[in-house]
Amino acid sequence: MTFQEIVNYRRSVRKYKDLPIDSEIVKNCLKLAVLSPNSSNMQLWEFYHVEDPQTLKKLSHACLDQTAATTARQMVVFVTRQDLFRKHSRKMLDLETLNVLKNSPEIKHIERVKRWKLYYGIVIPFLYSRFFGLLGILRKIIVHIVGLFRPIVYNVSENDMRVVVHKTCGLAAQTFMLAMADEGYDTCPMEGFDSRRVKSILKLPCGAGINMIISCGIREDGGVWGDRMRIPFEEVYNKI
Predict the structure, then answer these.
(1) I want to staple 60 with a disulfide (CB 3.0 to 4.6 A). Which of 69, 90, 93, 162 is the partner?
(2) Residue 234 falls inside a structural domain
(3) Are 93 and 238 in contact (CB under 8 A)?
């Protein structure tokens, strides 16, 4: 399919046929999801590919027993891992240092490595750190002072950074669903679930968050609820 055909084919499927789907294809679609754009390349996500029947049954119940879950052949739980920011920032610092040494003129090495050390060694850990909302308040005070003199990002509270991580994970989920559509497989992104039960089922740490759960399968007749409806394009499109 062309990209336009893929986008038009993808629908939120609420009921699947009792037919197996290839686990390796699903896994390959997740490999494509890893290539999604993400904030500061921090990649604070994990993907839990579930095909075990007993785990699927438990997840379906945690998803409020909706048919998109109970008829799914497989599921993928998209998980945010803001708690891994220190580990990932160190990896990114190592990667960017290698990029500088490999791709920059030697005369620029010290300056550019120093810049990445500042960003991934100090700025990113400061932005992603959490302490009962207090660090977010401190960050807001700092950016409001700096913002008096130059443009700056103001969304730096602890809740703002949580939103950033979830937006990033959502981009990966969209890439995954489009990749699945290209394979002729169907999906449904579900936000109706008991997050505590899901974390318990998957044995996730306290710092993990559930972004969404995507059910997978092959659409049953009537699995798509009616014609696609969208707000008229003219109401959402603004040309400046």
Answers:
(1) 69
(2) no
(3) no
Q: Is residue 166 part of a domain?
A: yes
Strands (E), 17-164: 45-50, 74-80
Tokens for 133, please give them.
């909302």
Under 8 Å CB-to-CB from 187, ≥6 apart: which residues? 10, 12, 13, 176, 177, 180, 181, 214, 215, 216
Which residue's structure tokens are 């939120």? 12
Task: Provide the number of structural domains found in the chain.
Answer: 1
Write out the residue range of the structural domain in which residue 9 sits: 1-221
Residue 113 lies in a domain: yes
Q: How far is CA 82 from CA 153, 197, 211, in A?
A: 19, 20, 12
Q: Give the mean pLDDT per block of 10 residues along the chain (240 residues).
A: 96 97 98 98 98 98 98 98 98 97 96 97 97 95 97 96 98 98 98 97 97 98 92 97
Q: How far is residue 81's CA from residue 142's CA, in Å, rounded to a whole number? A: 26
For residue 1, the Cα-to-chain-centroid distance in whole angstroms is 25
Whether residue 74 lies inside any domain: the answer is: yes
CATH number of the domain residue 110 falls in = 3.40.109.10
Whole-number Cα distances in Å, 99 to 31, 107, 168: 23, 14, 23
Contact, 99 vs 116, CB < 8 A? no
Give yes or no for a contact between 31 and 179, defined as CB atoms under 8 angstroms apart: no
Contact 222, 90 (CB under 8 A): no
Q: Around Cβ 12, how many Cβ atoms within 10 Å?
A: 17
